[in-house]
């Protein structure tokens, strides 16, 4: 019915206008979620899976008007579906021609200059483009009540974001506390690299602590990061959620002679761990008829060159379940990285005894010889694997205990409801 023929005249016109307006958004909190990586269901890195889970839970709650500002690689965009539910403003991280020259020119100092004040952890190009998007929101009258800023590299641009929306509350999400990751790199570096790593560490420590002080809520993934931030004076505003991980409770374990390790093999902490295990542990198991399977995309040539009759480097695998089913155990001899290791949680959920060190079990309140097998040296790994092969350790008992731990301490459905409540209560 047109306005002119409405039987109630001007009042009818007003009623139609009111009925056409979506009143849900009038009283909803407005939220802008800022991250350097787009969320989608098949994202391979652990932080991306956590990001994907929690932003979708926030949107699905129907309690907030959410927008996403993020960046992506061209091969990711076909998998991205969140734009069907909310407004998403995205930046492509792959440029050609003049744009590439401009990006490289802006970022070369930020990423490679050893005295960079941000410890080479943020890019100026994306900061400029994200700031431009936020200014566009302000120009159109969209003023967020809350900015959710995820990952340290985005948090380091918070000063720019706050200048546009000075009254917005800030939720900072630390997928990993970068201070800790750079501390480990410094500890392992030698020579001039150690000196440069120390400079980067001092710079990021200053800036990360400074920027976290601007946050109303800081969210971390595990107890270890929570305790670390408390050491730097953060207490009341630090909250911990449960990181999302894939549960593999339907695995029917055979406990064959296969040892598995998986992750994104582009990442240094992953491929160096696999290489170390091949060099230091596998020779001692040569007479045990075991096979080491390294699973994950983009393995470097050096790692692929280490394949043999008892070492398999698979590359990307779409379905890891068959590998879980036949594995005797999963190993994670990590020497780099910070924060909780999702692969360890997933290995536990798949019913596998997990053999790892203090870095691999970080943030997981597991008990040695009950929920996992603590291994620090190559001798520890050899000894634990032989115990499993000989039946001195029952893998089923370890698996059942680990799954009970996950049920008690890593319920991400309950955690998502808690997160939504934190956002609701933030004023």
Give an account of the 3D structure.
This protein has 427 residues and is an alpha/beta fold. It has 2 domains: 234 residues, Glycogen Phosphorylase B (Rossmann fold, 3-Layer(aba) Sandwich); 152 residues, Rossmann fold (3-Layer(aba) Sandwich). It has 17 helices and 13 strands. The strands form 2 sheets. It has a 7-stranded parallel sheet, sandwiched between helices. Helix 3 links the parallel strand 1 and strand 2. Helix 3 packs across helix 17 and helix 8 runs antiparallel to helix 9. The chain starts with 8 loop residues before the first helix and ends with a helix. The relative contact order is 0.10. The N terminus is likely disordered.
Mind sketching the topology for me?
Layout: H1 9-20, H2 24-27, E1 29-34, H3 46-60, E2 64-72, E3 87-92, H4 97-112, H5 124-139, E4 146-150, H6 152-155, H7 158-164, E5 169-174, H8 178-188, H9 191-212, E6 217-220, H10 223-231, E7 238-240, E8 258-262, H11 268-280, E9 291-295, H12 301-304, E10 311-315, H13 321-326, E11 327-332, H14 342-349, E12 354-356, E13 373-374, H15 378-390, H16 395-409, H17 412-425
Parallel strand pairs: 1-2, 1-4, 2-3, 4-5, 5-6, 6-7, 8-9, 8-11, 9-10, 11-12, 12-13
């Amino acid at each position: 019915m047109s306005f002119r023929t409405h039987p109630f005249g001007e009042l009818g016109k007003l009623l139609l206008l009111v009925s056409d307006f979506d009143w849900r958004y009038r009283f909803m909190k407005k939220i802008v979620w800022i991250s350097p990586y787009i969320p989608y269901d098949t994202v391979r890195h652990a932080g991306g899976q956590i990001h994907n889970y929690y932003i979708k839970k926030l949107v699905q709650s129907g309690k907030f008007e959410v927008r996403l500002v993020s960046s992506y690689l061209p091969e990711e965009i076909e998998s991205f579906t969140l734009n069907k539910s909310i407004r998403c403003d995205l930046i492509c991280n792959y440029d050609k021609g003049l744009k590439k020259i401009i990006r490289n020119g802006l970022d070369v100092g930020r990423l490679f200059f050893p005295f960079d004040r941000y410890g080479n952890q943020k890019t100026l190009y994306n900061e400029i483009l994200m700031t431009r998007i936020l200014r566009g929101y302000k120009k159109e009258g969209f003023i967020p009540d809350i900015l959710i800023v995820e990952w340290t590299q985005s948090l380091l641009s918070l000063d720019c974001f706050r200048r546009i929306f000075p009254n917005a509350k800030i939720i900072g999400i630390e997928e990993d506390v970068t201070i800790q990751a750079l501390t480990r790199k410094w500890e392992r570096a030698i020579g001039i690299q150690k000196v440069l790593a120390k400079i980067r560490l001092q710079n990021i420590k200053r800036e990360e602590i400074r920027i976290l002080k601007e946050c109303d809520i800081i969210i971390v993934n595990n107890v270890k990061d929570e305790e670390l931030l408390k050491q730097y004076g953060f207490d009341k505003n630090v909250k911990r959620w449960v990181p999302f991980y894939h549960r593999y409770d339907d695995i029917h374990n055979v406990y064959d002679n296969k040892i598995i390790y998986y992750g994104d093999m582009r990442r240094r902490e992953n491929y160096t761990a696999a290489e170390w295990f091949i060099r230091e542990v596998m020779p001692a198991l040569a007479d045990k008829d075991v096979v080491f399977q390294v699973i994950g995309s983009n393995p470097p040539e050096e790692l692929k060159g280490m394949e043999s009759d008892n070492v398999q480097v698979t590359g990307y695998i779409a379905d890891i379940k068959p590998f879980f089913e036949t594995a005797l155990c999963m190993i994670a001899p990590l020497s780099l990285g910070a924060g909780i290791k999702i692969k360890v949680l997933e290995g536990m959920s798949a019913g596998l005894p997990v053999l790892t060190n203090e870095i691999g079990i970080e943030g997981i309140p597991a008990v040695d010889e009950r929920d996992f097998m603590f291994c620090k040296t190559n001798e520890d790994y050899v000894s634990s694997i032989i115990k499993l092969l000989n039946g001195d350790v029952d893998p089923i008992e370890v698996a059942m205990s680990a799954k009970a731990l996950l049920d008690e301490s890593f319920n991400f459905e309950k955690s998502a409801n808690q997160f939504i409540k934190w956002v609701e209560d933030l004023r």
